[in-house]
Amino acid sequence: MSKRRTARNGGYLAAPIGTNDDNSNNRDEAIPMQRLSLGSRRSLDSSAGHSSTFSVDTPLMAAASDLDEAADNTRLDIPAGPPPGQTAGGGSRGNARTEPLNPLDNNFKKSRYPRNVVQNNRYNIFTFLPLVLFEQFKFFFNLYFLLVALSQFVPQLRIGYLFTYVGPLVFVLAVTMAKEWHDDHARRKRDNEANSQKYLRLTVDGPRVVPSAKIRVGDLVLIEKNQRVPADMVLLRTTESSGACFVRTDQLDGETDWKLRVAVAPTQKLTDNAELFGLHGSVYADAPHKDIYEFEGNLAVESGLSEGAVTVPLAAENTLWANTTLASGSAVGYVIYTGRDTRAAMNTGSAKTKVGILDSEVNRLSKILFLVTLGLSLAMVALDGFKAVWYVTLFRFLILFSSIIPISLRVNLDMGKSFYSMVIERDAEIPGSVVRNSMIPEELGRIEYCLTDKTGTLTRNEMELKRVHMGVMAYTLETSDEVTRHLRTNLKELAEEADGAGEARRDTPLGTGHGRARRDMPQRVFDMVESLALCHNVTPAEESAMATEGSTHDAQAAAAVVQEMAYQASSPDEVAIVKWTEHVGVTLAGRTLTTMTLRLDAAAAGGSSTAPLLTYDILQVFPFTSESKRMGIVVRSRRTGEIVFIQKGADVVMGRIVQYSDWLDEECGNMARDGLRTLVVGRKRLSPQAYARFDEAYQRARVAVVGRAEAMQRAVAEHLERDVELLGVTGVEDRLQDHVRTTLELLGNAGVRVWMLTGDKVETATCVAVSARLVRRGQLVHVMAGLRTAHEVQAALEALRTAGDCCLVVDGDTLGVALDFFGDEFAQAAAALPAVVCCRCSPTQKAAVVRLLQRHTRRRVLAVGDGANDVSMIRAADVGVGLVGREGMQASLTADFSVNQFSYIARLLLWHGRNSYKRSAKLAQFVIHRGLIISIMQVVFSALFYFAPIALFQGMLLVGYTTVYTMAPVFSLVLDRDVSAEIAMLYPELYAELTKGRVLSFKTFSSWLLISIYQGGALMMIAVWLFDTEFIHVVSIAFTGLVLNELLMVALEIRTWHRWMFWSILGSLAIYVASIWVLPAYFDVSFILSAAFVWKSLVITAVSSVPLYIIKAIRRIYAPPAYAKLT
């Protein structure tokens, strides 16, 4: 059993919490410059002098009897020093550390630990040039042109102008380096903003403002409410006398539930922060590691406390991890880990340079083209008989035919990427979208797996109680006024009593109706609402000024308090339920560790001048765990002294506890199919004798040395969980983002398999998967959860293989074992499923799943997230998309693409991704064709003229061919589209065709190769056949036919004409005609103006291009492409 789960079952204890009310009155005068006690704050503990022990998931409200028991165990027998092998006084071994507790005893001059900086940039001033050049020249494409350019510095190998070969390479490298510098500069700027955030560091002279980057191990840092924690800390003090506080961990683990953290008891008891500098001792922390649920350490105080030397253990509940946010009060922390040693940094993968699959495919094609070039060169030398210094001739032919691999291909593709990025950012249908990596827009057209976070990505993280079913009646938000009306009816007498009109004492509604076979509806409604208002671990936020028992409010004051009401809880589900009870008229007015107060606003709204208050003593709290799947509470009404046990939980366990009802299973199934999280609510009235018997058995179980958790659960089951009355079922919805269902359906029809990776519980994630239609109606949900051995996981994988079409739900423990021992088997079984849900995933596991899919399937993976816990997954994926949401900007800033909501993903892939990939594929093949055709003409020319390595087209003709004469028309292909955006979104199946890679394949490449051979051979052969008396005339005819052929080929490839396409073709033709007079060295103007030149050029052009127009027309008639049927 993992330590995380042991902690939840009470397997190990944290430092006890103590309160010192004797010193609380002086707290406001402790630190004049920055008081820790910020205004009036309501204590979370109503009794002075108690100590309590909390485990990781123990709720804030523990029973009073638990506090008494824990108080007896305040002192634990723990060694005062570090473990064996660990040196005190700042030494370290294996990165574990022991540092002085008092900053005055610390020597900060020695930098033993990493700086507390966020560093996402890839380069520095020394590594920029070598790393960028390495990234460029590791591709064969660029390396080849580097060698060609360098060869031109050798006189024997030089052909034509040096600029012809060196210039394009320098231009490409300059553009690439400029883009890399710009992107890295933006990353560095964002890092500097994070590193310059201001914090208060406590010193003996008072608090000082320091940037985050200046925080060191051993510092005492004051964290305010809603402030991000800058480094990993041990929690020393909070503004609550109990030492408790809540933190939001959504940026660390993706869970939006608030987590309870408790301060170390000896330091929490101090009067003020200044007394921390009177303590002398040490803090030991284990070596940094990734597990955010584990921490081992101790705090030893040798002097400065009235009770003498004290050593207390430290666990995860005593820590504040970096990137979490303090949600309540303010706190003082002792820094133990900084920079890359923090849990957040260790769970965040390093940034990598992403290379698109199109670039890899073009790189492979360039190798084939090099082999073609080498083969042609060897053929020329061989046909010439390997004469003289044949190897020099071979190299000259290699350089002469180097245009087969056109360097302009890289320029065109990079310019195309920038254009696609601009189009995405200017799309009015997906406003606010930002392209942060402009090198991979084509990757959006090849996605086959989409791995998405849940909270904040698919859902809004806005829980809402949608339905309450009580057997006879069901209520929704639309009928909540009926609930209020029933409450008013049932509370009428109680409201009169609160106003002084009632003379006789009356039992509270909690005590009425028990024993009746059938109660009237108002009473049933009140019982359900009251139970929901009591059975939870919610605490009203400290901003709301709560009334104490016995005080009165007028109607306006009560209304004002209701408007300001806010709640804290470890689960947003419970907040949603408490908000619903407040909405219908029963408000959680106050809560301490031992009491709970409800305000009956429904009675005041029904005509009473005041809202009656009901106060209950909390006797026991049984927290929710993933094993028990239920929580319970035992309360005692102060009005009647009646003791009631209330419990709520999943239907799978509550169905065996509550009394049988024929409607329970059916209604739970209906809610689950609607994507609602169901909770079954029941209660049981206890006599004082029955509770005493339970308490005796429970206390014996709590002190058991062996099997404590099992004994405690057995006591609850035997004494409480029998004959529990069924009250009803609630259905809570985690509201989805706009159009999530439609988006997931579109992605599914497009052939994209969606995986949901979340830190939430199995039940929660399954409900969201159903609600979002990730699980289709009637589809089997196959659950693999709670498996911790290799044998269990292997058996589960065998069962999964035979499960057929289903949605797999797997929890974090099972996933960890599967990744460690059966990675390939798990990937093989899961990759074929239409949907997979991974629950309780750590950030590291998310990234591991991405890499597993990439390695096993060789397919492109998209990762979508909105929190810092998704950064590792986003970086590991082929394409990362970050959402701008509640969980901050870190995912958005790290991602390749940033969007405002999940529904934009569909248009990003189906429209922009499809266009980007198809356009780049066409552009790449056309540029290759443009280089091939001129090289084929050179081959024919050399073969006809005695295999001499002499250039057919030299100087400006060669440069102009790939620039001013054809570049604009060829690049205009990035404007082409085969279907409209509406059709692309209406028929997502069009996207599925792209994932097969048929747009750019060896088949299409071979087609273009054959076209180039035909056209190049035809142009050169006919030019020679029409050979005139002057060689310059041959060049003029051949080059004119070549330019006209390329312009006609561009027109042939266009499917949807754009005005810029039309003008680019006409403009290029005009430039070519004008250059005839500008370049007399290459053209004989008198011959150009003759009729012979005109008819010969037209014949050459017609022979080379007209057959392709005929073939295309025939294919559109007999074998039209899929998109042609939709236009």
Automatic annotation (TrEMBL):
The keyword Nuclease belongs to this UniProt entry's keyword annotation: no
From its record, what is one biological process in GO terms? retrograde vesicle-mediated transport, Golgi to endoplasmic reticulum
What is the enzyme's class at the highest EC level?
A: translocase
Q: Where is this region: Disordered?
A: 1-28, 74-108, 496-518
| Organism superkingdom | Eukaryota
Q: Where is the P-type ATPase N-terminal domain?
A: 107-165
Q: Where is the active site?
A: 453 (4-aspartylphosphate intermediate)
Q: Which residues cross the membrane?
A: 125-147, 159-178, 365-383, 389-409, 927-947, 953-975, 1005-1025, 1031-1048, 1060-1079, 1085-1111
Q: Where does ATP bind?
A: 453-455, 574, 624, 648, 677, 758-760, 840, 846, 869-870
Subcellular locations according to the entry: Endosome membrane; Membrane
Keyword Transmembrane on this protein? Answer: yes
P-type ATPase A domain span: 205-344
EC numbers: 7.6.2.1
Q: Where is the P-type ATPase C-terminal domain?
A: 894-1120
Spell out the InterPro entries in the cross-references.
ATPase_P-typ_cyto_dom_N, ATPase_P-typ_P_site, ATPase_P-typ_TM_dom_sf, ATPase_P-typ_transduc_dom_A_sf, ATPase_P-type_domA, HAD-like_sf, HAD_sf, P-type_ATPase_IV
What Gene3D superfamilies does this protein's entry cite?
Answer: Calcium-transporting ATPase, cytoplasmic domain N, Calcium-transporting ATPase, cytoplasmic transduction domain A, HAD superfamily/HAD-like
Q: Which UniProt keywords apply?
A: ATP-binding, Lipid transport, Magnesium, Membrane, Metal-binding, Nucleotide-binding, Translocase, Transmembrane, Transmembrane helix, Transport
Gene Ontology cellular component list? endosome membrane; plasma membrane; trans-Golgi network
The chemistry this enzyme catalyses reads:
a 1,2-diacyl-sn-glycero-3-phosphoethanolamine(out) + ATP + H2O = a 1,2-diacyl-sn-glycero-3-phosphoethanolamine(in) + ADP + phosphate + H(+); ATP + H2O + phospholipidSide 1 = ADP + phosphate + phospholipidSide 2
Required cofactor(s): Mg(2+)
Q: Which PROSITE patterns match?
A: ATPASE_E1_E2
Q: Give the family from UniProt.
A: Belongs to the cation transport ATPase (P-type) (TC 3.A.3) family. Type IV subfamily.
Q: What is the protein name for this chain?
A: Phospholipid-transporting ATPase
Q: Give the species.
A: Coemansia guatemalensis
Gene that specifies this protein: NEO1
